[in-house]
């Protein structure tokens, strides 16, 4: 789910002004230096996740309030691609249409629908000045009229019904104006109705189309299919960049491209300090190389130990990736017992911890989040940076020594406690300090302000995930999705080393 600071638990339950939705429905971002290393070995595709600069000041985003596959894969299901950071996520290059047009979209394991901005001149992003203020160019938009293979999806398509969350197969065609008789007989030739897909603070509105799509930048190769169904968004609100949906639903790319049958995909997110570096990218790996043989020690590229925790299944929200969180350790001395809601689901399928590359910061239930803040305050002796907390909306900021005004200086970090997550199956993940406390401003007088980049889920209403493991806390962690055995692996590692080994680094 795309969320910069607040968790988007449901794509359909976020209040959007009626007039805005009506406007969106009536209107039917930097060419990035993309380099890829397509490995044609045994069975692997490695992709380079792309991430444009966060801003010239280095400012990070502030808190703000199945049947498969459907598509027909056309080539080897093994690849590696380069992912790049934007200030609130990681981009994967998509080649869309015939001839191909390269679009960059967020890698989002919390969403199913893949959509791209449509119309080079007509695409309208409402209230996107925050992005336009950055010194970056657009990430690309798709022109269906320039693609000889593009077509609208029929209202009779199962994916049209899935998009509109309908249990009645006749609903989409009736909405378009078809007679009941034609709908019952399957003779309605009208296209799938327009959609408005909501995210925590944004909306994407458009139509469902079918076209050639490859998870790859340029130069051919990569994982792709000839009849992939995705959204063509003519207008959005707060959403200037498209989304590559890597969830578990019918509409997701893993479903349509047969990745679930292949069994594995993984990524290793570079930390934010690489965001302005065009010479290195985070790897997205699809295929056998996403995981090494457990019989050979369970390691993955980059060194260390890969530990697997079960992938929990929610009857209420089956399209998300869930794990069970049993405890959190602060500074190797303070162990916090987590609420039962984070360990598993209630009888309705609510609860669990969602692993979501589309949510920036990790979210925890309100009362438990307060316990975490209290434990950190007891262990940290640095002066609080209260003004920054008030200005930026973070809950815990400290003035930390930065000798010679070097923002990456290690001095002081050792006195900031580490945070470790303990998942089911005795899996422990000690997060890098920079994935918990991050410098939010340039150093001044040999001091830098670092803030805790976690968020509260609030008291909530008990629906949806109890917590979310966001992309910021997944930095310098190899995350492996083992879709054959329904488990997720975590391994703390230097993702820069992984990228270099994958050939995603320019000397």
Description of the molecule:
This protein has 507 residues and is α+β, with helices and mostly antiparallel strands. The protein contains eleven helices and 28 strands. The chain has helices at 18-26, 129-132, 158-163, 171-175, 180-185, 253-257, 259-262, 340-343, 366-379, 386-392, 495-501, and strands spanning 44-49, 79-86, 89-96, 101-108, 115-117, 124-126, 151-152, 195-199, 202-215, 223-237, 242-245, 264-268, 282-287, 307-310, 322-323, 325-330, 334-337, 353-355, 362-364, 397-401, 419-423, 427-430, 437-439, 447-452, 454-456, 467-469, 477-482, 487-492. The strands form five sheets. The protein has a 16-stranded mixed β-sheet that branches. It has a four-stranded antiparallel β-sheet with strand order 17-16-21-22. A hairpin with a 7-residue loop joins β9 (202-215) and β10 (223-237). It is globular. Residues 4-43, 52-75 and 293-303 have low confidence and may be disordered. This is Peptidase A1 domain-containing protein. Keywords: Aspartyl protease, Glycoprotein, Hydrolase, Protease. Residues 90-491 form the Peptidase A1 domain. Belongs to the peptidase A1 family. It holds the Pfam family TAXi_N.
Output the keywords.
alpha+beta, 11 helices, aspartic-type endopeptidase activity, hydrolase, aspartyl protease, glycoprotein, protease, 16-stranded mixed β-sheet
Structural class, from secondary structure content? alpha+beta
**Beta-strand content bin:** 25-35%
Q: How would a textbook summarize the main sheet? A: 16 strands, mixed
Count of discrete alpha- or pi-helical segments spanning 4 or more residues: 11
Q: What is the distance, rounded to the nearest whole angstrom, between the alpha carbons of the first and last residues?
A: 34 Å
| Shape assignment | globular
Into which percent range does the helicity of residues fall? 10-25%
Mean pLDDT: 81
Q: Point out poorly predicted stretches.
A: 4-43, 52-75, 293-303
Number of strands: 28
């Amino acid at each position: 789910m795309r969320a910069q600071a607040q968790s988007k638990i449901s794509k359909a339950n976020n209040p959007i002004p009626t007039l805005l939705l009506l406007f969106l429905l009536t209107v039917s971002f930097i060419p990035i230096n993309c380099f890829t290393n397509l490995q044609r070995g045994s069975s692997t595709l490695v992709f380079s996740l792309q991430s444009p600069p966060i801003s010239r000041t280095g400012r990070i985003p502030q808190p703000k309030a199945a049947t498969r596959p459907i598509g027909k894969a056309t080539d080897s299901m093994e690849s590696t691609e380069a992912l790049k950071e934007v200030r609130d996520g990681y981009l994967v290059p998509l080649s869309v249409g015939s001839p191909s047009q390269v679009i960059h979209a967020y890698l989002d394991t919390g969403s199913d629908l893949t959509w791209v901005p449509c119309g080079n001149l007509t695409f309208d992003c409402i209230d996107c000045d925050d992005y336009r203020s950055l010194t970056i160019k657009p990430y690309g938009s798709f022109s269906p009229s320039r693609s000889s293979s593009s077509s609208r999806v029929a209202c009779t398509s199962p994916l049209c019904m899935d998009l509109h969350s309908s249990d009645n197969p006749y609903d989409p065609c009736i909405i378009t104006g078809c007679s009941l008789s034609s709908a019952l007989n399957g003779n309605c030739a009208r296209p799938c109705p327009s959609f408005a897909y909501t995210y925590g603070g944004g909306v994407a509105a458009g139509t469902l189309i079918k076209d050639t799509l490859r998870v790859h930048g340029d130069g051919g190769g990569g994982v792709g299919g000839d009849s992939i169904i995705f959204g063509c968004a003519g207008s959005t609100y707060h959403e200037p960049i498209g989304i590559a949906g890597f969830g578990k639903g019918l509409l997701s790319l893993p479903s349509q491209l047969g990745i679930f049958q292949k069994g594995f995909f993984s990524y290793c997110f570079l930390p934010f300090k690489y965001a302005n570096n065009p010479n290195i990218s985070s790897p997205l790996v699809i295929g056998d190389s996403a995981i090494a043989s457990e019989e050979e020690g369970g390691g993955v590229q980059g060194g260390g130990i890969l530990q697997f925790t079960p992938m929990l299944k929610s009857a209420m929200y089956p399209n998300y990736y869930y794990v069970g969180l049993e405890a959190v350790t602060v500074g190797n001395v303070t162990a916090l017992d987590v609420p039962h809601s984070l360990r598993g689901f209630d009888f309705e399928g609510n609860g669990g911890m969602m692993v979501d590359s589309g949510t920036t910061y990790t979210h925890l239930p309100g009362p438990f989040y307060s316990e975490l803040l209290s434990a950190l305050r007891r262990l940290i002796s640095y002066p609080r940076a209260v003004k920054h907390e008030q200005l930026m909306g973070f809950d815990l900021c400290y003035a930390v020594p930065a000798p010679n005004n070097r923002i990456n200086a290690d001095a002081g970090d050792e006195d900031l406690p580490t945070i470790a997550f303990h998942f089911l199956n005795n899996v422990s993940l000690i997060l890098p300090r920079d994935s918990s406390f991050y410098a939010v401003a340039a150093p001044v007088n040999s001091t830098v302000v670092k803030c805790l980049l976690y968020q509260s889920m609030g008291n909530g209403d008990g629906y949806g995930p109890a917590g979310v493991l966001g992309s910021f806390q997944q930095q310098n962690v190899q995350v492996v999705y083992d879709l054959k055995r329904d488990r997720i692996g975590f391994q703390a590692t230097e993702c820069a080393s992984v990228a270099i080994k994958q050939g995603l680094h320019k000397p």
